[in-house]
């Protein structure tokens, strides 16, 4: 557990990893919460996954496909019940195509099990790498809005057409 906990805390407390997500989380507070609830609590919600290195099981990041809360800004449908995909990678895993691969795989897998529906991708407008990834996966610009004191880019796509990225 301590290896997973250490890797998760490292990722979540890293100011560069959390630059576009409101800043780092306190390592001490995060460690206490995870130790109280268990490391499995990181992925206890349906649609929450760990991205791990196949050879060692080492945590590389996390991945989520969940309903965007209706009380939050950033929706395109009147009933505000869209899926939202998000991810977080440890800094040492950046630049290797892991986010593109993981998000694409998650969306293709979800499409095989769920009816076609709207999926959102939200990132700060200043996060050029995440914007490029969202567009590469098939998300189209749907607008901007302000949340967490920053302009957010809202991307939209249909579950059954997202994630069809050419590999190579």
TrEMBL record:
Domain annotation N-acetyltransferase: ranges: 1-163
Molecular function, one GO term: acyltransferase activity, transferring groups other than amino-acyl groups
Name by which UniProt lists this protein: GNAT family N-acetyltransferase
């Amino acid at each position: 557990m301590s290896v997973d906990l250490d890797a998760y805390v490292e990722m979540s407390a890293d100011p560069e990893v959390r630059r576009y997500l409101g800043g780092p989380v306190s390592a001490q507070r995060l460690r206490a919460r995870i130790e109280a609830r268990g490391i499995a609590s990181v992925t206890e919600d349906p649609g929450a996954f760990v991205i791990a290195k196949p050879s060692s099981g080492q945590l590389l990041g996390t991945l989520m496909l969940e309903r965007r809360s209706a009380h939050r800004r950033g929706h395109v449908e009147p009933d505000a019940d869209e899926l939202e995909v998000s991810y977080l990678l440890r800094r040492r895993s950046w630049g290797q195509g892991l986010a593109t691969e993981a998000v694409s795989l998650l969306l293709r897998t979800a499409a095989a099990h769920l009816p076609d529906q709207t999926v959102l991708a939200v990132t700060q407008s200043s996060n050029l790498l995440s914007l490029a990834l969202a567009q590469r996966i098939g998300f189209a610009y749907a607008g901007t809005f302000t949340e967490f004191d920053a302009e957010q880019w809202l991307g939209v796509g249909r579950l059954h057409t997202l994630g069809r990225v050419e590999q190579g």
